[in-house]
Design brief:
The protein is α+β, with helices and mostly antiparallel strands. It folds into 2 domains: 211 residues, Transposase IS200-like (Alpha-Beta Plaits, 2-Layer Sandwich), CATH 3.30.70; 85 residues, DnaA protein, C-terminal DNA-binding domain (Chromosomal Replication Initiator Protein Dnaa, Chain: A), CATH 1.10.1750.10. The protein has a 4-stranded antiparallel sheet, sandwiched between helices. The longest helix has 19 residues. About 5% of the residues have low confidence.
Length: 342
């Protein structure tokens, strides 16, 4: 994503979800390279979190050079890690991934979810199921749980949260000013307000649907910004962008429905709510692959179906298609009919 002064959510995961940090020195060196990324390429680091097998960063590129900087960054860390741990071969699962962010306001919301990554474990009630239950009001965290979550957050040293919250001195290469200005007008109140906003997330429950949009969408921002990214991104702008093929070849939802109607020889209304029919799950799968739609958007098309149910349906269909040649053939035909490559 080579956009002048562009904001982006950048993340990388270990090959086959293996750990990319095996010791404290690994994480320390990773942060040293983040500092060097800033110094070499003038890329601004606004926030970060390091987990065992992946990392997240919020970056800004005044010189539109994200792909150049990240190629160096991943290569430098992988070479150092392999030498230190006597291993060979790729460390990361493909290249880095990047999601464009509209502005610092959207980046501020994303920073909350980024900093909450270390809490996403069952023991704290914030695994995926727990987040879903809390966000929908089926479960309320106890005072003890909130206290445990906040304690872990304050003690987790491998994210930028402590600098934002004022619990430690700020590294000179970490740029917190733009996001903290979103917390409060008064400079003296910004870190205190940031802590309050994080606590509010933990008290009222982490919104799983918003979490999904912030962490896996093709762009983070208003609908107008997302449409602009889809319609106007050039080939150079899309280097490193998650889902860039879908951005280039986005297919209208209506065309996917027409293609499935043709395959079935039935109208949409005749099969969309039919149990055991392959038409609706094929639509779910194709809409996610070709239409650049979120899970929630796909669910709305079939009548207010929740994003988690859509996600489960897509995964079931993909598993079945691996074993059922008929379903696999239908996937190929949808691609062919809509003139896109599998």
């Amino acid at each position: 994503m080579n956009i002048e002064n562009g904001w982006c959510h950048v993340f990388g995961r270990g090959l086959e979800k293996r750990d990319i940090f095996l010791s404290q020195p690994d994480k320390e060196h990773f942060l040293e390279l983040l500092e060097e990324l800033h110094e070499r390429f003038r890329i601004l680091v606004h926030a970060y979190v390091l987990m065992s097998n992946h990392y997240h960063c919020i970056l800004q590129t005044p010189d539109a050079n994200l792909s150049q900087g990240m190629q160096w960054f991943h290569g430098a860390y992988a070479a150092w890690f392999n030498a230190r741990h006597s291993r060979v071969g790729p460390l990361f699962q493909g290249r880095y991934r990047a999601i464009p962010i509209e502005n610092s306001g959207w980046a501020y919301a994303l920073s909350h979810y980024l900093h909450l990554n270390p809490l996403q474990i069952a023991g704290l009630g914030l695994d995926r199921k727990g987040r879903l239950l809390e966000s929908r009001g089926f479960r309320t965290p106890t005072r003890k749980q909130i206290a445990q979550r906040l304690q872990r957050l304050r003690e987790y040293q491998w994210s930028s949260y402590m600098a934002y919250a004022g619990y430690c001195s700020m590294p000179r290469w970490l740029h917190t000013g733009d996001l903290l200005r979103r917390a409060h007008r008064a400079a003296a109140q910004r870190r205190k307000q940031y802590r309050k906003d994080i606590r509010l997330r933990l008290t009222k429950g982490v919104d799983e649907e918003l979490f999904e949009k912030l962490s896996s969408s093709m762009a983070i921002g208003s609908s107008g910004f997302i449409d602009k990214i889809r319609a106007g991104a050039s080939e150079d702008d899309l280097i490193g962008v998650t889902g860039k093929k879908a951005l280039r070849r986005r297919v209208p939802c209506e065309e996917v429905i027409k293609a499935i109607e043709e395959l079935k020889g039935e109208k949409w209304q005749e099969f969309v709510n039919k149990r055991g029919d392959w038409g609706r799950p094929l639509f779910f799968w194709a809409a996610r692959r070709l239409c650049a739609m979120t899970l929630s958007e796909v669910g709305e098309v079939v009548g207010d179906m929740g994003f988690s149910a859509v996600s489960a349906a897509v995964k079931r269909f993909e598993r079945r298609a691996k074993e059922d040649k008929k379903l696999a053939k239908l996937q190929e035909r949808v691609f062919a009919m809509l003139n896109v490559e599998p």
